[in-house]
Amino acid sequence: EVQLVESGGGLVQPGGSLTLSCAASGFTFSSSILKWVRQAPGKGLEWVSSVFGLLGDTYYADSVKGRFTISTDNAKNTVYLQMNSLQVEDTALYFCDRAGRRGQGTQVTVSP
């Protein structure tokens, strides 16, 4: 059974940083396409970033490019999202996603 457990969210001031983690199990982690998506209050899901496990290629939404970094640790079956220079607009519930399956999410709130 695919399981994804996100953690690392919190309250941070604009300009601050957070690192989200997603512990995965139930599938071949190293060859999977993994994504981070987010949902701001009252809005739909927004794709944030993807990593292609086999080649390690990474992709980012324009809104986070240059500020966020996605990475994986295959030994720990964990995908990370390093978020720097956070903005109020980054406030959302963040999920990791594998083929449409998501965890419970972790809340990121950016507020002065």
Please, could you describe this protein's structure?
The N and C termini lie far apart (40 Å). The mean pLDDT is 95. Strands 2, 4, 5, 6, 9, 10 and 11 form a seven-stranded mixed beta sheet that branches. This protein has a four-stranded antiparallel beta sheet with strand order 1-3-8-7, with no helix packed on it. 0% of the residues lie in helices and 54% in strands. It has strands at 3-7, 10-12, 18-25, 33-39, 45-52, 57-60, 68-73, 78-83, 92-98, 101-102, 106-110. The chain is globular, with a radius of gyration of 13 Å. The chain is mainly β and 112 residues long.
In short:
The chain has about 110 residues and is an all-beta fold. The protein has strands at about 5, 10, 20-25, 35-40, 45-50, 55-60, 70-75, 80-85, 90-100, 100, 105-110.
Question: Can you give keywords for this protein?
Answer:
112 residues; mainly beta; four-stranded antiparallel β-sheet
| Quaternary structure annotation | single chain
Structure summary, number of beta strands = 11
Helicity, as a percent range:
under 10%
The structure class reads mainly beta
Q: On the 0-100 scale, what is the average pLDDT?
A: 95
What is the chain-wise order of helices and strands?
A: EEEEEEEEEEE
Unreliably modeled segments: none
| Beta strand % | over 45%
Q: How large is the count of helical segments?
A: 0
